[in-house]
């Protein structure tokens, strides 16, 4: 899941971003309303965590403008304005998808973001299966021939993307763009390192192949 956090309180923004990355989300940051709008026009974010009190352009105006797009990101307003009237205004008049008042519990923020990310026209099956591997997207669990497998959040996200591709090669750049944030240098060996650990844990080094010039894919 790719998330944009638009928050001008830099310490809070970095704290949120760090926590979401630990949940295997790719997170970018914007510190002003105009920057948030520009980034949403350039990148297909799944969820936008939007502070209402942003400089240059308010979060309210950002929300209004993005709602005019054909396929806008899901918008979670995160604000100190927590009165019922504020929530109703944000959800109805502004068109936000969800509303969370500060101060908030981080676990609730993660749960709300995941819920928004699941709101797609057609819900895919919760469990993916390939060559004895079962990946449960809802529970974030993986098993091999019925044996539970402990994966890091990033390893889980890579395996999920490869299983969803159903044997089609997933380009290296797509893995970076989907599962990491904009600060990762695509020339680093981070992706290769994660794939290498994943191969070892799955117990079959040949299960994930690197097709030169095409990317990574799952083999039969």
UniProtKB/TrEMBL annotation:
The keyword Metal-binding does not apply. SMART domains: REC, Trans_reg_C. PROSITE patterns: OMPR_PHOB (PS51755), RESPONSE_REGULATORY (PS50110). This is Response regulator transcription factor. InterPro entries: CheY-like_superfamily (IPR011006), OmpR/PhoB-type_DNA-bd (IPR001867), Sig_transdc_resp-reg_receiver (IPR001789), WalR-like (IPR039420), WH-like_DNA-bd_sf (IPR036388). It holds the Pfam family Response_reg. The modification 4-aspartylphosphate is found at residue 51. Residues 125-220 bind DNA. Keywords: DNA-binding, Phosphoprotein. Residues 125-220 form the OmpR/PhoB-type domain. Residues 2-117 form the Response regulatory domain. The lineage of its organism: Bacteria, Bacillati, Actinomycetota, Actinomycetes, Kitasatosporales. Transmembrane segments: none annotated.
